[in-house]
Amino acid sequence: MLPLVEEFYTVQGEGYHTGKAAYFIRIGGCDVGCAWCDTKFSWDPSLHPVVPAGQILSNLLKHPAKSVVVTGGEPLMVNMGPLTTLLKEHGVETFLETSGAYPLSGTWDWICLSPKRNMPPTGDIHRYAHELKVIVAGEDDLDWALENARKVNPGCKLYLQPEWSKREAILPGIIDFVKNRPEWMISLQSHKYMRIP
């Protein structure tokens, strides 16, 4: 049973899987509290219906989706094991978007770790992350990015993503950072440019 904010079939707009068709499952509940969060409506899980994992699977199977992105909110506030087990039984790729502030649960083909300074990752999630995506709203976030990059495995993809409302001002600094550190890449919220969910 999962507090379901919304589910929809679209194209991934951020990070490594940008441009890939995926079914999004947004889980309710988050106490990380980022001031710039664009999904604050997901924070209170009591505002959203509790839905069986089997119903979510049934909804997914109505679409040609081969990949699922589980996001939030902070999805790891809920045990993701039952949902990901069902998805894997049906051959669906499972992608997680998490701050890492709660213990890892579930079976994932791809883990995007997006650490937040006000509630840092716990446990050893850095070593399991396939992708590190740091939201940049100010220069000090670049230091936060470097701090987290030192903790991930050598194969982890490194991304900096400008906070949407400050993208014009913050992008030049991110571009310079990446040019000086080519192991990093820039993630833009392309779904917002495409005006899709």
Rg value: 16 Å
Helix content: 25-40%
Q: Tell me the number of structural domains.
A: 1
Please write the string of helix (H) and strand (E) elements: EEEHEHEEHEHEHEH
Walkthrough of the structure:
The chain has one domain: Aldolase class I (TIM Barrel, Alpha-Beta Barrel). Helix 1 packs parallel to helix 2. It is built from six helices and nine strands. It is of the alpha/beta class and 197 residues long. It is globular and about 45 Å long.
Give the helices and strands, then pairings.
Layout: E1 2-11, E2 21-27, E3 50-51, H1 53-60, E4 67-71, H2 81-89, E5 93-98, E6 110-113, H3 125-128, E7 131-136, H4 140-149, E8 157-162, H5 167-180, E9 184-186, H6 190-194
Helix pairs in contact: 1-2
Entry summary:
The chain is 25% helix and 25% strand.
Write a concise keyword list for the protein shown above:
nine-stranded mixed β-sheet, TIM Barrel, 197 residues, single chain, alpha/beta, globular, 25% strand, 25% helix
